Amino acid sequence: MGDVEKINLADLDREAMETLFAERLGSKAFHGRNVLKWIHKHGVTDFDDMTDVPKKLRAELDEIAEIRLPEIVFEQPARDGTIKWILELLDGQRIETVYIPEGDRSTICVSSQVGCALDCSFCSTAQQGFNRNLTPAEIIGQVWQATRELGRSPTNVVMMGMGEPLANFGPVVTAMNLMQDDLTYMISKYRVTLSTSGVVPNLNRLREVSDVSLAVSLHAPNNELRDQLVPINRKYPLEVLIPACREFIKDDKRRKVTWEYVMLDGVNDSIQHAKQLIRLLEGTPSKINLIPFNPFPGTDYKTSPPERVEAFRQKLMKAGIISITRKTRGDDIDAACGQLVGKVRDKSRRQLRRQVQKPVAISPPPQGSAQ
Ligand code: SAH
């Protein structure tokens, strides 16, 4: 046998696994389902330990397949119980995954890319530039590792780590299928949330193949401001984005779109902005998450004062829009929204361009103050 690359079984969801067993291996689909369970439910990565899979089939599997997942190389607990894991990928690059406990809920915040190709001005992942998409194994591997660490599956997954999930469509859908599968992690469709900056064509595609919950990084109530904060808005402006989101939830009366809105001092946090937002979302079942801006070294943005966030929230609530101010979690370990960085070999050369434009950030702003 030559060195043909082996199939990584951790890249496969149930359908792909069944196809591999029934068609390529000439075996039975149910053996594929068993292997899926071994990997994800029991955390087994050695074929020899898969005792209900026939020995001969295990030997055949060993010839063509392997099970490879990212590894935790560093674990950092925060004061509030949040944990940040740094995972190393097969090519040595690093990504971050965050575990957020809250009462009897446990949420894992999962990354979808190494870095991010979008250039949102208030996000520290963006400053890192972009290297590559994660494979399905690297995405579900974050949930796999968390499940092993916690001793049980998380109750919720949010695709809100590094990267734009809709820019890595196939692998993200495969991984989300696995999260929801009742042979593996059994997380309900209401508890797997994809967050996007608004890649509208792929949002429309997602509707056809997945029933996860939707969160959208809105951050501004008009195109002029959103063009600056979330540059992909220039390609898919609000008049295109909002109807696509409405369409996404329209078949399920229980659904709302969750809008994420980072509160930036003096930029998007006035009562005038709140009024525009109310008008913009009229007719769309909505929930708003106000996120206090989490500063990072080199940024000029500041966190809105808590009174202003509360006044903004009250305005929205009075208009009948459920709005919550998201508690900042894990900020003492840089695990909060927009602070995930990893170790990115920047292919977009953004880091380099930034260094040329803006020499050095001398003193980082205080972490987690004013929150
Ligand atoms: N690319 C996807 C997934 C990232 S989710 C998306 O844009 O939705 C991470 C969330 O944190 C997004 O809503 C993002 O806009 C927000 N965020 C980014 N930087 C932040 C910061 N510095 N402070 C607070 N929230 C931030």
Q: Quote the CATH topology of the largest domain.
A: TIM Barrel
Global geometry: globular
Name every ligand kind in the structure. Answer: S-adenosyl-L-homocysteine
| Strand line-up across the major sheet | 3-4-5-6-9-10-11-12-13-14
Number of helices: 12
Q: What share of residues is helical?
A: 25-40%
H/E element sequence:
EHHHEEEEEEHEHEHEHEHHEHEHEH
- Rg from Cα: 21 Å
What distance separates the N and C termini?
60 Å
CATH class of the largest domain: Alpha Beta
Low-confidence stretches: 356-371
Beta-strand residue percentage: 15-25%
CATH homologous superfamily name of the largest domain? Aldolase class I
Q: Any guess at the CATH architecture of the largest domain? A: Alpha-Beta Barrel
Largest sheet: 10 strands, mixed
Alpha-beta content class:
alpha/beta
Q: For the residues shown, what is the average pLDDT? A: 91
Regarding quaternary structure, how should these chains be classified? single chain
Q: What's the number of domains?
A: 2
Number of strands: 14
